[in-house]
Design a protein that fits this description.
The chain is α/β, with parallel strands linked by helices. It is built from 14 helices and eleven strands. It has helices at residues 4-24, 26-39, 83-95, 111-120, 150-163, 183-195, 209-218, 234-238, 240-246, 286-291, 293-306, 310-321, 334-341, 350-361, and strands at residues 51-54, 61-64, 68-69, 100-102, 128-133, 135-138, 141-146, 169-174, 199-205, 221-227, 249-253. The relative contact order is 0.13. The protein binds NADP nicotinamide-adenine-dinucleotide phosphate.
């Protein structure tokens, strides 16, 4: 649950900022505020004010309408920014109203949990902290295999708790379904951890409908975290129906298609293969980047009419899909964080949504999202 007292603190902080700004340059700021209200009709300050509910009943979570994906601050996005910068982006996100933070044992591995643990320490009790287990890690390196052996899950959680500097993980996901371990055993292990108070809620990442049903029967699931964006829409038909039937939330990861939908990548973008998974994904070859460019052009043209960026349209489109959808865009930059969080207050009309959906579905996307299927 969002902590009311802390929400008040945030509002107070933002009000003081607004007051100082008004005193210094009253007329232009007021005019700008009026204009901003017209574009972002429900935004009461620079932050994110909307919340959503993931899951149902005892295992529901009240979270900000957008979360922050922290992976790229340590892993898989080519550069690793200065640690102080990443900590300040995470803390700024909290000040802006974000209460939903995503990390995993695998990110680094380990380094991202350590970073997130340090960054959130001052407001740990006021946020929903999510992590994941399930990749096999040997000598500090991912082997490419999975490990959801119940004994291993228990060890991972104890280690994650230390790195995250906390005594409980609010939402623990299995990162990938492990074909060697029956889902019932995985769910049973997490159920035990919930009973012990080390974990509060359970989620799955890239799980198919059958795995979701098996897990949910043992331990009710709060959220499914799976790739979903304007360019990766499979989950809408494959996973949304089971989420709706069972009352489970959906957390789109890579909601900006790993930066492609922002228009910031192009065929000359140099990824660092030592710390970026995009060179291994078919959608990020120079040929695929060129072939799919019509999408970025459309989003840019559409956005130019509304004064919005391609990233904002992409996130607003996701939010409009269902009330139980909570995307977790990743960023290492304050400017991008602010741009992305404003998406929660963008209202797209039905005609605009239809236009976006129809145009994008009319474009054949070149390059699969992964070289091998992920969902099991
Ligand atoms: N469950 C899973 O298997 C799984 C897999 C992948 C990711 N995830 C989670 O999902 C989160 C997000 O996914 P992601 O990082 O893969 O992809 P993403 O959120 O689609 O894209 C992040 C990339 O977009 C750039 N970006 C973000 N906002 C931008 C903006 N407004 N303008 C221009 N560029 C912008 C970021 O660069 P800058 O830093 O320069 O902004 C970063 O390179 C991760 O942090 C992680 O928590 C989960």
């Amino acid at each position: 649950m969002l902590n009311q007292e802390n929400q008040e603190g945030r509002r107070q902080f933002l009000k003081i900022g607004a007051f100082l700004g008004t005193a210094a340059i009253a007329a232009p700021v007021l005019a700008a505020a009026q204009l901003e209200k017209e574009v972002f009709p429900e935004n009461k300050n620079d932050g994110i004010t909307k919340t959503r509910i993931l899951g149902s009943g005892k295992h529901s979570l009240n979270v900000s309408a957008l979360g922050l994906g922290c992976m790229g601050m340590s892993w898989n996005r080519s550069f690793v920014p200065d640690r102080k910068n990443s900590i300040s982006v995470i803390r700024k996100a909290y000040e802006m109203g974000v209460n939903f933070f995503d990390t995993a044992e695998a990110y680094g591995p380990f380094a991202n949990e350590e970073l997130v643990g340090e960054a959130i320490a001052p407001f740990r009790k006021d946020i929903i902290l999510c992590s994941k287990f399930g990749f096999d890690i040997q000598n500090n390196k991912l082997t490419g295999g999975f490990n959801s052996d119940p004994k291993h899950i228990r060890q991972v959680v104890d280690q994650s708790l230390k790195r995250l500097k906390t005594d409980v993980i609010d939402l623990l996901y299995q990162h990938r379904v492990d074909p060697k371990i029956p889902m019932e055993d995985v769910a049973g292990a997490v159920k035990d951890l919930i009973e012990q108070g080390k974990v509060k809620n359970f989620g799955l990442s890239e799980a198919g409908a059958e795995s979701i049903r098996k897990a949910h029967a043992i331990q009710p699931l709060t959220a499914i975290q799976t790739e979903l964006s304007l360019m990766s829409r499979e989950a809408i038909t494959e996973i949304f129906p089971v989420c709706e039937e069972l009352g489970i939330g959906f957390v789109p990861y890579s909601p900006l298609c790993r930066a492609y939908l922002t228009g910031y990548l192009n065929e000359r973008t140099k990824f660092d293969p030592a710390n970026d998974n995009r060179p291994s994904l078919p959608r990020y070859t120079p040929e695929a980047i060129r072939a799919n460019w019509k999408i970025v052009e459309f989003l840019t043209d559409f956005g130019n009419q509304r004064g919005l960026t391609p990233a904002q349209i992409s996130l607003a489109w996701l939010l409009a899909l269902k009330p139980y959808v909570v995307p977790i865009p990743g960023t290492t930059k304050l400017a991008h964080l602010q741009e992305n969080m404003l998406s929660a207050d963008i209202t797209l009309s039905k005609a605009e949504l239809d236009n976006i959906t129809q145009t994008i579905t009319g474009i054949r996307i070149v390059g699969d999202r992964y070289a091998a299927p992920q969902t099991k």
